[in-house]
Design a protein that fits this description.
Layout (H helix, E strand, L loop, with lengths): L8 H4 L23 E12 L9 E6 L8 E4 L4 E7 L8 E3 L23 E6 L5 E6 L4 H4 L6 E6 L8 E10 L14 H5 L7 E4 L14 E8 L6 E5 L5 E5 L2 E6 L6 E3 L4 E7 L7 E6 L7 E7 L31 E9 L7 E4 L2 E4 H6 L4 E3 L2 E2 L8 E5 L4 E8 L5 E5 L4 E6 L2 E2 L5 E2 L1 E4 L4 E7 L4 E7 L2 H5 L3 E6 L1
Parallel strand pairs: 1-4, 3-8, 9-11, 19-25, 20-23, 24-33
Antiparallel strand pairs: 1-2, 4-6, 5-7, 7-8, 9-10, 11-16, 12-15, 12-17, 13-14, 13-16, 17-18, 19-22, 20-21, 25-31, 26-30, 26-32, 27-28, 27-29, 27-31, 32-33
The structure holds CU-O-CU linkage and copper (II) ion (CU) (2 copies).
One copper (II) ion binds next to strand 5.
């Protein structure tokens, strides 16, 4: 494979041009109060990812779109989604971040049987939390999600906040060959043992550098969703000061992002409030600065020439109402440790596989490179159970990253509070379902196990998950 954009700079000079993505939110035929019903058909399709100079890319899609259609539902209203499998392999849909009944969680082998080719499965749940979520398969994720199977799930508040526009940006990362086709080197040893599958083309809503016109004076709610297999983002918005108003769907006291960078580990979401203070006709560039010395322009937004409405009174900050999460009892919580080891330069010599200590060479031969508390899990087996928790009990978990790569750790079926990073207690104790644990970092989280069932707890670098970083939290 030759890398068409290792010199990403080659692309940076391009002007935006072209039309903004035709992301038709396939609005449900929802009547308020009656819930919504959707159909998602997983099947191959073709998509224009990098502009006219290149051909179309074969992707896997929901309803011929990659990313799939944005599903918009109302908090507290029933949702029904009929998923049809038009792929040549098994699939499923997981509703990332939604606190739903275990049987609807979409993890074959743990919560349901896989949806076979040609078959369908109906998911039904009532989203308890308003916010920004997403959906994706939980079978061979490192290939299926990468090929395009992912979409936004927006749970609307009962009373929407006062903004002029509500925008979703699905951030994704593709590894494309010179023919603009998806490089098929999934789960190769290098990706699995390093930072995961990092690509060479980054897209917003399925297109590289799409055009989103801005209007001076407008206030935007910008919902960022990182659906990349492995890439983390740290965005800066030139000359703009967005405020973080929600993380992983859960409202947080509005604040400026740490160090001015909006950081999203793989699978995370951040809602921003963005006041468009630029002058008519000016531009705003959005940079990614997560990887040192590899900063690039994610997109470049152009202000229209329309003048802002004169003398608009300053608007108060809108407040998102907290979702009904149950607070962990920090005083009486049990404390556990989860030590993350392995990967290249990690010094791991071996770990337990199927209950037997196995040396690293033998593990690596089966594509396994990572361990949590010394246990390696196989991609489709869910035996290592890290924690059995009584319904209602509270738990603190200290995540210790002893490797040299970041790990976005994700718990199904719950949200947890992020309490501290190393010795720094966090100001907002945000609720999250995914937390990025940096190399050598120690992060403490706490949650109340209030949703019965078997829930995965795994690294959301999908290549790491496939190479051992997965365990189960069993709430009984
Ligand atoms: Cu985004 Cu196990 O999930
Ligand atoms: Cu999830
Ligand atoms: Cu990882």
């Amino acid at each position: 494979m030759t890398d068409i954009t290792t010199s990403r700079r080659k692309f940076l000079g391009l002007t935006i041009g072209g039309v903004a993505s035709t992301l038709l939110p396939s609005r449900s035929f929802a009547t308020p109060g009656e819930g919504s019903e959707f159909r998602l058909h997983a099947r191959p399709a073709r998509s224009r990812i990098i502009g006219e100079r290149y051909g179309l890319t074969d992707v896997w899609s929901y309803n011929d779109q990659a990313p799939g259609p944005e599903l918009r539902v109302r908090v507290g209203q029933p949702v029904r989604v009929v998923v049809e499998n038009g792929l040549a392999q098994d699939t499923s849909v997981h509703w990332h971040g939604i606190r739903l009944p275990n049987a609807m969680d979409g993890v074959p082998g743990l919560t349901q049987s896989a949806i076979r080719p040609g078959e369908r499965f109906t998911y039904e749940f009532v989203p308890p939390d308003a916010g920004t979520f997403w959906y994706h398969p939980h079978v061979r994720g490192s290939e299926q999600v990468d090929r395009g199977l992912a979409g936004a799930l927006i749970v609307e508040e009962e009373e929407p906040i006062d903004v002029d526009r509500d925008l979703t940006w699905i951030l994704d990362d593709w590894r494309l060959t010179e023919q603009a086709s998806i490089s098929a080197d999934f789960n190769n040893r290098h990706d699995a043992s390093h930072a995961g599958r990092l690509g060479n083309v980054v897209t917003v809503n399925g297109q590289r550098m799409p055009a989103f016109p801005l209007v001076s004076g407008q206030r935007i709610r910008l919902r960022l969703i990182n659906v990349a297999n492995a890439r983390n983002f740290a965005l800066s918005f030139e000359q703009h000061q967005p405020l973080v108003i929600a993380i992983d769907g859960q409202p947080v006291a509005p604040h400026e992002p740490d160090g001015g960078l909006v950081t999203l580990g793989a699978a995370m979401r951040i809602d921003l409030l963005l006041d468009c203070r630029g002058a008519p006709g000016s531009r705003m560039r959005v940079f990614d600065r997560f990887y040192r010395r590899r900063a690039f322009i994610l997109t470049e937004l152009q202000y229209s020439n329309a003048a802002p409405a004169a003398n608009k009174p300053p608007r108060p900050l809108p407040t998102l109402r907290a979702n009904p999460l149950s607070e962990p009892d920090l005083e009486n919580a049990e404390t556990h440790e989860l030590v993350l080891t392995g990967g290249a330069m990690g010094g791991m010599r071996g770990a337990n596989l199927d209950g037997k200590w196995t040396d690293i060479r033998t593990l690596a031969r089966s594509g396994l490179m990572w361990a949590m508390n010394g246990e390696v899990s196989r991609p489709d087996r869910f035996d290592p159970s890290f924690l059995t928790a009584r319904v209602g009990s509270s738990h603190r978990i200290v995540l210790r990253n002893q490797s040299v790569f970041p790990h976005p750790m994700h718990l199904h079926g719950h949200h947890f509070r992020v309490i501290r990073r190393d010795s720094r207690r966090l100001a907002h104790l945000p609720w999250q379902d995914t937390v990025l644990v940096m190399p050598r970092e120690e992060v403490e989280i706490a949650f109340r196990a209030d949703n019965a069932g078997k829930w995965l707890f795994h690294c959301h670098v999908l290549e790491h998950m496939a190479a051992g970083m997965m365990t189960v939290v069993d709430v009984v």
